[in-house]
Design brief:
It is a single chain. With about 400 residues, this protein is an alpha+beta fold. It is built from 14 helices and 14 strands. It has 2 domains: about 260 residues, Jelly Rolls; about 110 residues, Homeodomain-like (Arc Repressor Mutant, subunit A). Helices cover about 45% and strands about 25% of the residues. The strands form 2 sheets. Strands 1-4-5-12-7-10-13-14 form an 8-stranded antiparallel beta sheet, sandwiched between helices. Helix 1 packs antiparallel against helix 7, helix 6 runs antiparallel to helix 7 and helix 11 crosses helix 14. The N and C termini lie far apart (about 60 Å).
Length: about 400
């Protein structure tokens, strides 16, 4: 059977099943539905609660949420985590959802949650690299590749996002029950790496290169950031095509998924110490030779291990620390931009401007004028407020 025919069968099967569902059944189960969060909204706790109830990889319960390092408690109002842009999640049916984000983060944000069923998240990032952590390891999004997270039922997973970073990514989440029950996939049609991870009750991470047709499909999803019914239906069709193409690629011997290596406890401790030392030295740079001397690890382990554990490479982490300092100085002082660049460790203002724009999507001068007032407020510890009863 050709890949094109497989795609057509999957799409036809899903669309026919959707057409056969009664309105009463859909309304009672809460499917299908779309939840859109726009940066203009002040608080998102109500929509976030609805989203988590249906999100395939998060519907098993939330363990913890943090906003700018502050632990959120039940009843707290949750400020919008987006400064610009927006995001939409299409809950198409139980075990199948598509999430699209295209905007700049307004806060440091992390959420730890569990899945109610064995599932897998298929992620593609066009900008910004979110980080995911579990007891067995971690993963960071990579441009032009599909990063996947195999999540057993009840296993905890943490997602981390950094303030001022522009994120543009999509996530297609499917449960094992959806794959076998709704799509009729046989056990041998599911990658063995997935089923073995579910059996071991371990979260597993990896990535696979995207071919041009699959990449084109994923890029089309970013044009559908709307909660209208036709946007949901088109997202549903594209999502199924992506699933079909990726699963077909995984079954081909020449396209095995790249599984991320595991770090020993001693290596994790060395990398944590290295991160602490990088923070202590900032804004002074740290060479690879110095990093090797401090951690006792080789170049490969530092480069890939640091990125796997903390979401970015050591070099990018040091740059982010310098740009965070520059952001604070832009928001809280009237120093000239050239002087701020020097204080943040940039010898050339032009290099600072280029790095700052890549990091935030804005020129330093525009950032200061557009975010000045809001930034001064954000620089103070946020005060929790309760939902009125």
């Amino acid at each position: 059977m050709t890949r094109e025919l497989t795609v057509d069968i999957l799409i036809s099967k899903m669309i026919l099943s959707r057409m056969m569902k009664s309105a009463q059944e859909s309304d009672g189960a809460g499917y299908p539905c779309s939840i859109c969060i726009d940066s203009s909204e002040q608080y998102i706790d109500e929509k976030l609660s609805r989203l988590l109830k249906h999100e395939t990889a998060l519907d098993g319960g939330v363990d913890m949420m943090r906003l700018n390092g502050r632990l959120l408690r039940p009843g707290d109002r949750i400020e919008n985590i987006l400064a610009t842009g927006g995001e939409v999640t299409h809950h198409i049916e139980p075990g199948f959802s598509i999430h699209l984000t295209d905007g700049q983060a307004a806060h440091d944000w992390s959420i730890t949650a569990r899945a109610a069923d064995d599932c897998v998240r298929l992620r593609f990032a066009a900008a910004g690299n979110a980080q995911y952590q579990a007891d067995q390891g971690s993963l960071v999004d990579e441009d032009s590749a599909c990063t996947f997270i195999v999540q057993p039922a009840g296993a905890s997973l943490t997602a981390n996002y950094r303030r001022d970073v522009v994120y543009r990514y999509c996530s297609i989440d499917v449960s094992r029950a959806f794959l076998t029950g709704r799509l009729g996939m046989l056990p041998e049609q599911i990658p063995a790496y997935f089923t073995s991870s579910w059996a071991r009750q371990e979260v597993a991470f990896g990535r696979i290169a995207l071919d041009r047709p699959t990449l084109s499909l994923l890029l089309r999803l970013f044009l559908l950031r709307s909660e209208e019914v036709w946007a949901r239906l088109e997202s549903q069709a594209i999502g199924l095509q992506v699933i079909a193409q990726l699963f077909s690629s995984w079954r081909e011997p020449q396209n095995p998924p790249a599984v991320l290596f595991r770090l020993k406890l001693s290596e994790r401790a060395a990398l944590v110490h290295l991160r602490t030392e990088a923070e202590r030295r900032s804004p002074n740079p740290m060479s690879m030779a110095e990093a090797q001397s401090i951690s006792g690890l080789n170049r490969n382990k530092i480069h890939y291990g640091f990125k796997q554990l903390f979401g970015v490479s050591l070099q990018r982490y040091c740059t982010d620390l310098r740009l965070r300092l520059a952001s604070e100085l832009l928001l809280t002082t009237t120093l000239p931009i050239a002087e701020i660049a020097a204080k943040a460790g940039f010898s050339e203002p032009t290099n600072f401007t280029a790095a700052f724009r890549q990091h935030t999507g804005q020129l330093p001068s525009n950032f200061r004028s557009a975010r000045g007032k809001a930034g001064l407020m954000l620089s103070r510890p946020p005060q929790p407020s309760k939902i009125s009863k």
